[in-house]
Amino acid sequence: MSALQLVVASLPVLMQGVLLTIKFALLSMAFGLVAGVVVALMGIGHQPVLSALARAYVSIMRGTPLLVQIFVVYYGLPGIGIALEPTPAGVLTLSLNVGAYLSESMRGAILGIPRGQWLAAYSLGLTPGQTLRYVVGPQALRLAVPSLSNSLISLIKDTSLVSVITVTELLRTAQEVIAATYQPLPLYLAVAAIYWVLSTVLSQAQRLLERRLSLPGRH
Question: N vs C: which end of the chain shows fewer Cβ within 10 Å?
């Protein structure tokens, strides 16, 4: 069987891995965004303890390799009585990791909203929580779209690391096919091409979303 025939024959199996990769990325992005917003609010709040915890979390998650974090969650936590299946362990680790980066994006976006927006909302009788939800939050989310999109693109590629804990995402699926066919080059090239296509599609979607959300006169 030629390399092209092998890739074509393996596509249905690889597509199953692609679906799991996308599922992993979307779930991790959703949970990571929630964590990122919470950590961002902790970081810009006026509680020194919460602010210090937020800085420590971001520093640890950004300062250690994602692969090490995966090993800590999957292989290390059972040592203290917390055992997770590969899929939950992978989603948890990716969410915690991307949440640290998203928190910095959201913190910068929130701080980028002029102080006058807060004061105007207070003058209308809105509470700080209402101001954040109805006035500042939507504007900050618009500012953070490019950074959030870039994080999702990076997350798509980072999902390949969960293959080390036997999660059958795209890379792990390809490795299983390689184990049966002994032809690594065409399959690894096919995987690389699939990741490239996914990243390119997301990049185009990012541009369209930025154009849609851009303020009048800034196209």
Answer: C
